[in-house]
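Record copied across here:
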Amino acid sequence: MTITDHREAETHAHTHGPDCGHEAVVHEDHVDYIHDGHAHREHDGHSDECATCSCANCADTCAKCDCRDCSCPTCNHHTCSCSNCGGDPCVNCVCADCSCATCNHAA
């Protein structure tokens, strides 16, 4: 499960979801909605700010980080090794029966 520092985001006039108009990105055990340069995730009836990459080369959200030498603990750039994913990044894996040792998600 992804660890967050549970910072509540500003109040929105809508609830993030499939038709809210913001880019949705799977990030380990949740979906981030990219909003004004940062990522929100729905949590217990409100939105939380999601992790920002902590490596020295990036200022993007972990859900969007594409640093080749990333050292951030919440960015997972490994490639899923299970037979269902076909080479997708572990951070985006949603396989219910994933057997990959580097995936960290709630199936």
